[in-house]
Amino acid sequence: MKTWWKEAVVYQVYWRSFFDTNGDGYGDLEGVIEKLDYIEELGVDVIWLNPCYESPDFDNGYDISDYNSLMRKAGTMETWERLLSEVHKRGMKLIMDLVVNHTSNQHPWFLESSSSKDNPKRDYYIWKDPKNEKEPNNWRSYFAPSVWEYDERTSQYYMHSFAVEQPDLNWENAQVRQEIYKMMRFWLDKGIDGFRLDVINLLAKVEGFPSVENPNDINYLGNNPGIHDYLQEMNREVLQHYDIMTVGEIPFVTPEDGLLYVGEDRKELHTLFHFEVADDMPTWDMTRFKEIQARWYEGLKGKGTNSQFMNNHDHTRQVTRYGNDGEYRIESAKLLATMIHTLPGIPYVYQGEEIGMTGVHFDSIDDYNDIAMRNKYKEEVDKGSDPQEVFESLLMLSRDNSRTPIQWDDTDQAGFTTGTPWIKVNPNYKDINVKQALADPDSVFYYYKKLISIRKENPVMIYGDYKDFSEKDENLYVYTRSYEGITWLVILNHSDEKQVLSLGKGLDVAGKKLIIANYEDVTGEESIQRTALRPHEARIYQI
Ligand code: ISL
Ligand code: CA
């Protein structure tokens, strides 16, 4: 069934690093409004805005203390209303982040819940007695050695899947669920076009909270019995009453289990982000990537919709982590975009990816803000490891790699702020910035713009069957998408060397039509039956 969200390209705005209009060093919603023409120029359909609700900001807005008001550094509700109307005026849609596995420890609900054992809101959160005077079990948190934090006042532990400042809500409590559904309607009734649901598969905890064999393999935090009851209730009570898009962030999930969240007959969510690549593939592994793509294509085909991304605010910039951010940065950025936009699933563009921004390598832990990295650094150094070695080991996967300010031009602070940025600007902004990209017809930006525009006229990119012709090849990725008699052949050389491509019989490209290429000298006239593809070369033909 055709629907607007299946045909969408989504642009993720991490607003605090997007554009600062009041000189406080933080991007803000006014800044997003001022740059909407730039986003519209790309041709994207949906903007996903990271959390901007009231928050003490321990985890950059993912620790919410008031779901119904704006964090001051982001702007006022009036600013937000104007942003929504300006997005809609441009024919784009806005989806918001829904963070309901946990709140901030400064949320009024938690202040009440933690005040005493018989407070009416005690069961809004998960409280347990000590076991043998220690934590109730051996579960590890994403951001700390244990999910349990002891509270002296009531001599009990509360659970936090992330930082101590992010207590988990108790979804077994129907009152909590109704509070959340009411909040969701508050934003949907303002006219938003959907939600990105933060770690939505963690809402149901393992029955009885037993200790586990291997606490470091934290997949026991998610996909537990009961999660689908909650999501089907959320769909009945809220989601199905609006024409919206919902994308679930679902770590540790297999395609079979993923289908339970996004199957069209499931009446839960529309699509999902899964994390085998982002969380389990530290560096590029072509055959593993192809296996993951094949598994998810088979798992969802005809029943559910996948999403395609390789970086976001939690995962370092793809051209650095999975491509080549040096000699072949431009070609590599375009190749990765060609892949993400032609594999089955809704493509996501993370702000700055469209100009080939790269990860960073600051000098000291003090240059980094990410609570996940700083907590891990402290945990390892406190165990006696060498601080410099720990620091170096965390650099590549630090979430701050993708959180440095957008590089608008080559003036001071890359034109991001007139003040001191909350996190340093990547020193390569003089060469890599929006102003340069908009002035160069062969820039990564215009390549993204073309990829996004051809999607509008070619349903084969959205609905086409997928077939990989290169499973075993470490460097070449050759696949087709076919739909209503049209077949596109995608050819990618994901390596720093030339690779000889020899196409099998079934891929006869006589009379082919070149759709797009990331090397400007490709005309479509050349034979590709046997051809040498240059480093990080990408081409799409209609065959
Ligand atoms: O970055 C990761 C691990 O360090 C991811 O596994 C990430 O933590 C996980 O996917 C959950 O991410 C989401 O929830 C977190 C928040 O810090 C992230 O920014 C958000 O994307 C807690 O709300
Ligand atoms: Ca600001």
Named once each, the bound ligands are: 6-O-alpha-D-glucopyranosyl-D-fructose, calcium ion
What is the CA-atom radius of gyration, in angstroms? 24 Å
Strand order of the largest sheet: 1-2-5-9-10-11-12-13
What's the assembly state of these chains? single chain
Tell me the domain tally: 4
Q: Which structural class do the helices and strands define?
A: alpha/beta
CATH architecture of the largest domain: Alpha-Beta Barrel
Question: What is the percentage of strand-forming residues?
Answer: 15-25%
Task: Report the top-level CATH class of the largest domain.
Answer: Alpha Beta
Average pLDDT level: 96
Helical run tally: 16
CATH-defined topology of the largest domain: TIM Barrel
Helical amount among residues, as a percent range?
25-40%
Which spans have pLDDT < 50 for at least 5 consecutive residues? none
Major sheet: 8 strands, parallel, barrel
Shape: globular
Give the N-to-C terminal Cα separation: 26 Å
Q: Count the strands?
A: 20
CATH superfamily of the largest domain: Glycosidases
Catalytic activity: Hydrolysis of (1->6)-alpha-D-glucosidic linkages in some oligosaccharides produced from starch and glycogen by alpha-amylase, and in isomaltose
InterPro entries: GH (IPR017853), GH13_cat_dom (IPR006047), Glyco_hydro_b (IPR013780), O16G_dom_2 (IPR045857)
Pfam family, one: Alpha-amylase
Family: Belongs to the glycosyl hydrolase 13 family.
